[in-house]
Design a protein that fits this description.
Chitinase A, domain 3, four-stranded antiparallel β-sheet, 623 residues, Triger factor/SurA peptide-binding fold, 4 domains, alpha+beta, 17 strands
């Protein structure tokens, strides 16, 4: 279509269309739209699609900030953002309608106090900061008037809803005790584990049985979707390698960076600082008479060797007044007293590491790479822009690559994990999101330029798709036979466990059954109804809490490679005194749940009393 629109015929038709609008004008009905229709009505309050869109976009921006990435519309749908926005708007409108009826209000002073008390708008001194407030409004798309009305609505909403749960200061003891007794009870199990491998021989399945196995779980015997891709990759390294750098440029770069390229001389320095010149001179005299530098520091200043050791220092690491004196010393020499803003210094040098001056020839290649990479970013952006222009003009990936003399790479069949048909990793660009994008596209999609990590760009097109398909029995026979026999052994182990369960229910003890089977009775750690099942499988843990003392159950083991026959070894009743924090937390949770329930029921009443209408189909059409 883009290429066709560039022809003289299409341009002529467009000119006629523009001229017709100029002569006859644009009818008012052409400018009207259902977009302005109200999508939410609560009592006398109406919310237009435009108002809904502003709230929706605001929520989308806030959610994107929380996840530190810009969410797509599809991701917003997965989060149920539209429904969340409906609930927010409806709840505000309900509060507004009911508070007006009851005559509740919040004056400007109350609104001002509420806004100024919010920590998000306060500076480090704890004072309201107008700049922070305006930043918040701008970031979240509010006008000042809109936000003030939201705060006013919150205040009147607290007046309306705040008193409802005041009578519930604490959940009833009988309710908390009942919940705690149920959830905090612990049990231990005694069990035997009948492994599938103990069954031994398994018969060979027929083809009909294998076909039924494959039909029951086709995902286990299917080849994944494979795709063939074509892509263009623009990297800083590739662009840099194609850039010529003259020797004059290299020489200029060398001179400009000579100080960075050379390694300066370094010296291991110790120093002590005195408040007066007289004290420094006296210490210098002691050292000249043969006393050790570190001993003088300890005697005069109570400084340890670690206190006076500066380590290896380059000239620029030192105060300007110290640079020449210290770097003029011989090894183990001591400076005369040197005055700086810190006091009077004495310094000694215990080690000298000579500097290194690098010649142009030594760093020429590194300089060339640095310059090329520096220029590459600008060239990369230019090439990516030209590539986008080609795509905007209707060019396919191969056409654009040919026009711009770019290297286009094609792959053989690969799956969404980047593996070829042999299961080996295919050679693909190390670019975050490359495969995700490649497997989200279809062959009909127009190519797009995407930014790659590391400062490059790429564009990928799908050239062919081989849909996921169930493999033939001949291809998966060996795997299917193994799976069928594993399933058979597992079923036989379960049948054996169920037969033992019948014996246990008939009066045998678990110890007797275990001895007859040559198995060891094991005892689990104490477990709760929820959380970790420890040695048991979750389904066996659930079964354990359904058993009475003396009864037994059968379920799969934790590894899924056998069946447990288990019973209750011990019941440990809940005791609030052993975990007061958990009991207090449960009390608070139940109390909060009761309060929330009261508010929810009142809001449900308001919805029926005031009435709410939501045009969900229209909202879904746009969001």
């Amino acid at each position: 279509m883009r290429k066709g629109a560039s022809g003289w015929l299409a341009k002529g038709l467009l000119l006629l269309l523009v001229a017709s609008f100029g002569v006859w004008g644009i009818g008012g009905d052409m400018l009207s739209s259902s977009v302005g229709s109200n999508v939410i009505e609560v009592g006398d309050t109406s919310v237009s699609l435009g108002e809904f869109q502003r709230d929706y976009q605001r929520n989308l921006n806030m959610l994107s900030q929380r996840f530190n990435t810009q969410l797509t519309q599809e991701q917003a749908r997965q989060f149920g953002l539209a429904q969340m926005t409906i609930n927010q708007i409806a709840s505000r409108a309900l509060v507004d309608e009911k508070t007006k009826t009851l005559g509740l209000s919040a004056n400007d002073e109350a609104v001002r106090r509420m806004i100024q008390s919010q920590p998000a708008f306060q500076n480090q001194a704890g004072q309201f900061d107008r700049f922070l407030f305006e930043q918040f409004l701008s970031r979240n798309g509010y006008s000042e008037g809109e936000y003030i009305e939201i705060v006013r609505n919150d205040i009147t909403g607290d007046q309306l809803f705040g008193t409802l749960p005041l009578g519930v200061s604490k959940a009833p003891d009988v309710l908390v005790d009942t919940f705690y007794a149920f959830l905090a009870e612990k049990r231990t199990a005694e069990y035997i584990d009948i492994k599938d491998s103990s069954i031994g021989f398994a018969p060979a399945p027929t083809d009909e049985e294998l076909e039924a196995l494959i039909e029951a779980a086709p995902e286990n015997y299917s080849a994944p979707e494979y795709r063939k891709l074509s892509y263009v990759l623009l990297t800083p390294e590739a662009v840099a390698a194609a850039t010529d750098i003259s020797e004059e440029e290299l020489r200029a770069e060398f001179e400009a960076r000579k100080d960075q390229l050379d390694t300066p001389e370094q010296r291991h320095v110790q120093q002590m600082i005195f408040e007066t010149e007289e004290a420094a001179i006296a210490a210098r005299k002691k050292i000249a008479e043969g006393e050790d530098f570190a001993n003088v520091a300890m005697a005069d200043l109570q400084l340890t060797t670690a206190d006076i050791d500066l380590g290896l220092m380059a000239p620029t690491d030192l105060l300007p007044e110290l640079q020449d004196p210290i770097f003029s010393l011989e090894k183990d020499g001591v400076t005369s007293p040197i005055k700086t803003v810190l006091g009077w210094h004495l310094a000694t040098v215990s080690e000298i590491q000579p500097g290194e001056t690098r010649e142009f020839a030594e760093v020429q290649e590194q300089l060339k790479k640095d310059i090329q990479l520096g220029q590459a970013q600008e060239l990369l952006y230019e090439r990516a822009t030209r590539l986008e222009d080609e795509f905007a003009g209707g060019s396919k990936l191969d056409e654009a690559a040919k026009t711009l003399d770019l290297n286009i790479i094609t792959t053989d069949w690969i799956d969404a994990g980047g593996n070829d048909k042999s299961g080996n990793a295919a050679e693909l660009p190390d670019v975050t999101g490359f495969l995700t994008e490649a497997f989200a596209r279809s062959p009909q999609d127009e190519p797009e330029v995407s930014e790659a990590n590391g400062g490059g760009y790429y564009a990928v097109s799908v050239t062919d798709i081989k849909a996921a398909a169930v493999k033939s029995l001949a291809e998966v026979r060996e795997q299917a036979i193994q799976d069928w026999q594993d399933n058979w052994r597992h079923e036989e182990a379960r049948k054996k466990a169920e037969a033992l369960l019948v014996e246990l229910n008939g009066g045998k003890t678990l110890e007797t059954v275990a001895n007859e089977q040559g198995l060891t009775i094991q005892t689990s750690k104490p477990i709760l109804r929820v959380g970790s099942a420890e040695e048991l499988s979750p389904i066996a843990r659930d079964g354990l809490f359904d058993l009475q003392t003396g009864a037994y159950g059968v379920n799969a083991n934790k590894a899924g490679d056998g069946t447990l026959v288990y019973g209750v070894a011990d019941i440990i009743p809940a005791d609030p005194t052993t975990d007061e924090d958990a009991f207090t937390q449960m009390t608070e949770q139940i109390t909060a749940s009761i309060k929330t329930g009261i508010l929810t029921e009142y809001e449900n009443y308001l919805q029926k009393d005031i009435g709410i209408s939501v045009k969900e189909e229209l909202i879904q059409e746009y969001f």
